[in-house]
UniProtKB/TrEMBL annotation:
Domain of life: Bacteria
Protein's name according to its UniProt entry: Phage terminase Nu1 subunit (DNA packaging protein)
Lineage, highest ranks first: Bacteria, Pseudomonadati, Pseudomonadota, Betaproteobacteria, Burkholderiales
Length: 190
């Protein structure tokens, strides 16, 4: 069956069938349209209830040219020994679009539901942004660092008076515990 006959079979204009061909929806056996394989693609990719891509012979009266189906940077190249349908499937799989309309709608609805749930959880305070947590942890580490670096300057005069390693160890233990308790109290006060 040629493209004009195929257009008549689906009650669409020949321009619509040309668009289907550009999209890789038509499968050819030589110069003829493989009706069974093409019908399967049309059923898979064409949204139910959507009319033809172009109006019939009478036109739509707008005079507005339609944009190409794909941008030049996204065109699919057909490899040696590969049919246009195989190239289209390869491209769809490579771009993650190997779904029919119903599967795509399901994925979209699930995505939107998960996005809404995440927004609700964020507003309820059940989840926080990683950047906010990283900033808070960084601020706390900066406080710990500052406090620990201040210990030698604050306590050196007292520590130099100690005579034995045991006295020095006990004093350092006491100073470190005191600094950690101070830092813990700062965190609770928030």
């Amino acid at each position: 069956m040629n493209q004009s006959q195929y257009a008549g079979r689906h009650s669409v204009s020949p321009k619509t069938v040309t668009k289907w061909k550009e999209r890789g929806w038509l499968v050819f056996a030589g110069d003829e349209v493989d009706v069974e394989a093409s019908d399967a693609n049309i059923k898979r990719y064409r949204t139910k209830g959507v009319g033809s891509v172009t109006q019939g012979a009478e036109g739509n009266g707008q005079g507005k040219a339609m944009a190409g189906v794909t941008r030049a940077s996204k065109k699919v190249t057909i490899r040696d020994g590969e049919t246009p349908a195989e190239a289209a499937v390869r491209h769809l799989v490579a771009t993650g679009a190997d779904m029919n309309i119903e599967e795509a709608k399901r994925v979209k609805e699930n995505y939107l539901a998960l996005q809404t749930q995440l927004e609700y959880d964020r507003d309820a305070g059940l989840v926080v942004a990683v950047a906010d947590v990283a900033r808070a942890v960084g601020e706390e580490y900066a406080k710990v660092r500052t406090r620990l670096l201040a210990i030698p300057a604050e306590h050196a005069p007292r520590l130099q008076l100690l005579k034995t390693p045991v006295e020095l160890q006990d004093a350092l233990q006491e100073i470190i515990v005191e600094a950690l308790e101070e830092l813990t109290r700062d965190g609770v006060a928030r």
